[in-house]
Amino acid sequence: MNSAYFSEEHDLFRKSLKDFLQKEVVPHIAKWEKTGTIERFIWKKFGDMGFLGITYPESYGGLNLDLFYMVILLEELQKIKSSGFAAAIWAHVYLAMTHLNAEGDERIKKEYLVPSIAGEKIGALCISEPFGGSDVAGMRTNAIKKGDKYIINGSKTFITNGVYADYYVVAAKTDPAFGNKGISIFLMDTSSKGISATKLDKLGWRASDTAEIAFDNVEVPFENLMGEENKGFAYIMQHFALERLIMAINAHARAEYALDYTIDYMSSREAFGTTINKFQALRHTLVEHATEVEHCKIFNYAAVARLDKGEYVVKEATMAKLKSTKVADETIYSCLQMLGGYGYMEEYPLARLFRDSRLGPIGGGTSEILKEILSKMIIDKQNYEPAVKK
C-alpha cells in the first residue's frame, strides 16, 4: 500500500473492513443483486462498526477520520462483486449525508445525521430530473412559499436509494426567474404526503434501488430549508467535487480488481499447451491497462490528499472522474475478452463488473459535461469558487 498516504492504522482499518465485508455482506450479494433490494439489517451493522460515519464529527456519532479512510471504504466495496451495493452505501454516506453535515442546522443534524451515521435512517440525494439530466441549472422542480411551509412540485430521476430512503435531500427552484441562482436545498421526509417513487430497471448496479420520484404538492416545513435560500446551486457544485472524486476512486478500484482477477485466471487457464499468461499479446495488453490504472490511482490519491487539507479541487476531481471511468471501462472490456466465453457468463464476476462499470462515464455528470466544465476552466479561464470558504 502507498505509504505516502496510508499509515499502519489505515492498513488495520482495511483488514477489519475486508473481514467484515466477507462475513456480513458477500454471503448476501447474489440475493440482493437478484431482488434489487438491500435488506435493512446490513445498514445497522455498517453503522455499529462506524463505517457510515468515518469522516463525520464525533459529536454526531462519527469517527472524524481523514479522507483516506474513505478511500479504503470505497476501494474495498468495489471488490465484493456488486457496484450496486457499493453505490447504495456511498450515495447515502457521501451524497445525502454530505449536505446534512454541511448545510443542515443543529436540529437536522440531530434528527437525521445522527441516525444516518448509526444506520437507522437511509438518505438519497435528489438532483437529476427527467428533462434535465446533467443540466442542474435547467431543473423544473419548484418550491413555493406558503405560510410556514414550502410546497414542492416536480420530479427527479436516477435517484440511488430513492425507493427505500427515509429522507431525501432535494434541490428545487425557489426563484425560477434567477435560473441557477434560484435553486435551494431541502430536507424532505419520505413519510410526507404527495411523494411517489418508482423503481427503475437498469443495465447494472442491480442491487441498489434507483428511482424516479414525483412530488405532488409536498409540504416541507420552512425550517427544512438547508443553508441559505437560492444558494443551492453553489452548494451542489461544491459537493460535486467530492462525488466526482468518489467515482474516480471507484473506477480505479474496480479496474484494479478486474486486472487482479484476470491475471489469476490467466495463470491457470491453459491453451495450446501452456498457460495463457505466457502469450505476449495478452501480457502486453494487460500491462498497458495496469499502467493506465496506476496513473489514475496516483492522480486520485493526490487529489484526495489536497481535498483532505481543505483545498478546492473541482478541476482535479473532474479530470479524475473523466479519465478514471474511461480507463476502467477499457480495462474491464479487455479483461472480459481475455476470459473468452467464461467472461460472458454470469457466474464469473467480469460480466457483472462490465455492466456496472458502464455507469461510470454517465453518473455524477456525463463525460461530455465534464469535458465542457474543464474547457471553461482551462480554455476560457473560468474560475469556480467554493460556496462556503473554510
How is this structure best summarized?
The protein has ten helices and ten strands. It is of the alpha+beta class and 390 residues long.
Give the key terms.
4-stranded antiparallel sheet, 10 helices, 390 residues, globular, Butyryl-Coa Dehydrogenase, subunit A, domain 1, Butyryl-CoA Dehydrogenase, subunit A, domain 2, 50% helix, Butyryl-CoA Dehydrogenase, subunit A, domain 3, 4-stranded mixed sheet, alpha+beta, single chain
Task: Give average pLDDT, whole number.
Answer: 94
- The fourth-level CATH homologous superfamily of the largest domain is Butyryl-CoA Dehydrogenase, subunit A, domain 3
Total of helices: 10
Distance between the termini: 31 Å
Q: Given the helix and strand composition, which structural class is it?
A: alpha+beta
Task: Tell the overall outline.
Answer: globular
Reading the helices and strands in chain order gives HHHHHEEEEEEEEHEEHHHH
Strand order of the largest sheet: 1-4-5-8
Task: Tell me the total number of β-strands.
Answer: 10
Count of discrete domains:
3
